[in-house]
Design the sequence.
């Protein structure tokens, strides 16, 4: 098992990509701190992990709160003894065209997608620096390169890339690897909630947008995260890996 006895915190893991990562890690032997703002979703994932034969505990709350992120890391240390892997996955969208975007829509996205990742990196790194080992994986997006209607989201995900590279430079000498994954069109609840006509248009354009001619799945992202969390990626840091079927090649 590639993560046997490792301890991972996965933010936003009550569903979607975060759930996929948490379950994949558990399959490989990791103990998981599951986090989500939805208690029912988080507890359901904890049960799935225990059914897989691993162990998990839930911490409920938003990563926009430093106290909540601190509780996640403290829980990992107090319940499982340490933290080896931090996956900063939690994210939200508040999509609207630039000239109509409100301060609230901007601030909400930045608070979760950017400040929340900062908290995750910083708080986990304080433990990882002392032990001389750690894996930090930040979930960015192909939207970091710009996407109409997503000025706030694109800015936050581009910021995640900058933080990833800076943290990798600072933490590398301490034995901590920091990398980012930039998913593309991943078939999650967030995408499924889009208006049907938008999904239809997306499906029609799929052969022209994505060379592999399919939407991605949370499992696709989880498999990449597993590699970055394992010792197989010990000489990889500061990288942004696009998991997008070739969309942004």
Sequence:
């Amino acid at each position: 098992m590639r993560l046997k006895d490792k301890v991972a915190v996965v933010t936003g893991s009550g569903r979607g990509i975060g759930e996929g990562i948490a379950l994949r890690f558990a399959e490989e032997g990791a103990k998981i701190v599951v986090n989500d703002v939805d208690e029912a979703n988080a507890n359901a994932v904890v049960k799935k992990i225990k059914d897989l034969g691993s162990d998990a505990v839930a911490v409920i709350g938003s990563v926009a709160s430093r106290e909540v992120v601190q509780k996640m890391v403290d829980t990992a240390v107090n319940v499982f003894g340490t933290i080896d892997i931090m996956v900063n996955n939690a994210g939200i969208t508040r999509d609207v065209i630039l000239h109509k975007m409100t301060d609230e829509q901007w601030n909400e996205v930045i608070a979760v997608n950017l400040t929340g990742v900062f908290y995750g990196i910083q708080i986990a790194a304080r433990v990882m620096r002392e032990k001389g080992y750690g894996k930090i994986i930040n979930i960015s997006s192909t939207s970091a390169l710009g996407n109409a209607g997503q000025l706030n989201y694109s800015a936050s995900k581009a910021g995640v890339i900058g933080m990833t590279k800076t943290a990798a430079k600072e933490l590398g000498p301490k034995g901590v690897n920091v990398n980012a994954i930039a998913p593309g069109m991943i078939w999650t609840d967030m995408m499924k909630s889009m208006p049907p006509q938008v999904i239809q248009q997306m499906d029609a354009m799929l052969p022209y947008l994505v060379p592999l001619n399919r939407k991605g799945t949370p499992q696709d992202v989880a498999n990449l995260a597993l590699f970055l969390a394992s010792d197989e990626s010990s000489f990889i840091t500061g990288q942004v890996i696009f998991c997008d079927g070739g969309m942004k090649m």
Notes: Residues 103-131 form the longest helix (29 residues).
